Amino acid sequence: MKSNLLSILAVLALGLTASFGHQGVELGPNGGRLLDFGKDESMHGEVTAKDGKFHIALLDKAMKPVALDAQVLTATSGDRDKPEKLTVEKADGHFVVPMLKGEEFWIILQFKPTPTAKAVTARLHYDAGICEKCKKAEWLCECAKKK
Ligand SMILES: [Zn+2]
Q: How many C-beta atoms lie closer than 10 Å to residue 79's C-beta?
């Protein structure tokens, strides 16, 4: 019983680390922000920002590109009071999600490997503020990890 409780606490702690602060920031092969889209790192989304839109490419366990096929992505603005569903498009082999207004916001992404599969939820914290150390935008800053 005690070990069960401990493992639950460990899972909660992991969830918190991924949700807050920058220590969870990992970058992909194209310099984008990596999100976990599957169990055991079997699927990743690499998020890059371009022309007011997020481009989300799929990568497998070995960080190799995954072809976009039957996968489904839904996106919701992380505004707790007024969550808003965002229009997700598919273009050039990746998902395209409109960026929200503002310098800082959360977007909740739900990824399904197939339309009927269980969704995996990932949270993206966008922060356009510039890190003094690496001069990158905070949402792409790995400084906290290197400490
Ligand atoms: Zn930095």
A: 13
pLDDT digits (tens, 9 = 90+) for 128-138: 999 999 999 99
Cα(89) to centroid(ligand 1), Å: 31
Within 10 angstroms of residue 45's Cβ, the number of other Cβ atoms is 28
Q: Flag whether the pTM goes above 0.85.
A: no
Tell me, what CATH number does 76's domain have?
2.60.40
Quote the number of domains for the chain.
1
How many Å apart are CA 52 and CA 24, to the nearest integer? 24
Query: What is the CA(70)–ligand 1 centre distance, in A?
Result: 36
Q: State the residue range of the domain holding 70.
A: 2-146
Q: Name the residues around ion ligand 1, CB cutoff 5 A.
A: 131, 133-134, 141, 143
pLDDT band (50, 70, 90) for residue 7: low
What does the alpha-carbon distance between residue 111 and residue 59 come to, in Å, rounded to a whole number? 13
CB atoms within 10 A of CB 52: 9
Report the C-alpha gap between 7 and 101 in whole angstroms.
39
How far is it, in rounded angstroms, from Cα 87 to Cα 92?
16
